[in-house]
Amino acid sequence: MPERIAREWNSLVEQTSTETHQIVYSIVHDYEDELKQRYRAYLEGDPDLASLIGESTNLTAFTDRFLEWMKKLVDPNATSGEIFFSEQDSLGDTMARIGFPPHAVSRSIRKIKLWFLRHLAEADVSRQQLVDAMTFVIGLFDIALEVREASYQKGVASNARVNEAYRLHLLGQNLGMERERQRAALMEWGHGILAAFYQNAASSELPRLWKSEFGLWLNHKAHILFERQPKLELIKQLVNRIDNELVPALERVSFGDRSQISDAAGRIEEELSAIKFLLNSIFEAHIEVESGRDPLTQLLTRRFMPSVMMREIQLQKVSAAAGFCVLLLDIDHFKTINDTHGHKVGDLALRSVAAAITETVRQTDFVFRYGGEEMLIVLVECDEAMGLQVAEKIRSEIAKLSIPLADGGKFAVTASIGVAAFKGELDYERILARADKAVYEAKEGGRNRVTLAPES
């Protein structure tokens, strides 16, 4: 879709005259205050949006970002179609992440188009210029809406899958037990197909694998546990072959022909064995990571971080909310550690740092392996002062570590930490961006230090 949308955008811009583009651009600038007031009134007038956005400062920020987006969208010096697509796609993803209600994306675009068309109708332009400008405005916003809605729906679906996976994690989902349960379900269906064949001799209808306990699990739950796992598609293809080809072939076999029955049942058993092999390999690959723990450090995996962050932001909407802090930690000179002492020692350093963090924070806090040598800590019910205090304690404990070497020597390890306290953000990515900027400044400032993130 990106290439098609980019081509449509480029074509629309190229076919629109500079004069027409300027007419549309002037309306935004000439009626800037009116546009801001109308958009703010739209946000305040929709109960779902008003509840989501909350504070007046957020309303102002949303309105300002909207106006900035509008100016970029109608700018005569338009960007390329590829950049246009990327920007609209990012907006849709942000809306999904924030939790915008489904109607918000299309309704806002519809209201903007009507506002534009009304002002165009009142403009002092020729009939042809009016038609050209209306055509441009409708095409412009319809393309933007198409991209944003697609991105929004994709983001909503992704968030829903992650939230369900997180729910299963919290309920103590045991992948080892789940694997054995599904293997048993496959075996039970395989043993039952011949029994069903003999019991239903007068009828040609045999049970399908898709309707079995295993088939239902595969269709409704497997994609939650094993998102975007290619082998799942192979398993589904095998199930389709069993249901659409092999079981019907068994149904056509004569009840008294043992040779044909054995041959048909044998082909089904071969496909079931292939499914079991693929199923086992999928579970083996995920049994550590999908349990919610990083196998090396035993910290939470990054996969569940969005669910935790969105939940913490939601909790801040109550009057007695105490805030929370995000600490982003980066082990100093980790590449040098690996290059000098080897990856085995590097892994030991990672485990030691992870243990120092978990021993310092409360059990109610969250510690994630964020990536490589980075770790993310979410301190719940924590203000900025407390966040800095805990971060300094973590930094100090890490600095005390003494990592043993194979030759009997030891070396010290340090970490740089960026601290970002919750400042009313609706999108957790903004908090993470501030924490990331702070840890960068800590490293630039000499490493082995704690730096507080700016507010924006």
Automatic annotation (TrEMBL):
One GO CC annotation: plasma membrane
Pfam families in UniProt: DosC_2nd, GGDEF, Protoglobin
Top-level enzyme category: transferase
Reaction catalysis annotation: 2 GTP = 3',3'-c-di-GMP + 2 diphosphate
EC number: 2.7.7.65
Superkingdom of origin organism: Bacteria
GO molecular function terms noted in the UniProt entry: diguanylate cyclase activity; heme binding; oxygen binding
Domain GGDEF: 322-455
Biological process, per Gene Ontology: cell adhesion involved in single-species biofilm formation; negative regulation of bacterial-type flagellum-dependent cell motility
PANTHER family: DIGUANYLATE CYCLASE DGCM-RELATED, REGULATORY COMPONENTS OF SENSORY TRANSDUCTION SYSTEM
Protein name: diguanylate cyclase
Lineage: Bacteria, Pseudomonadati, Pseudomonadota, Alphaproteobacteria, Hyphomicrobiales
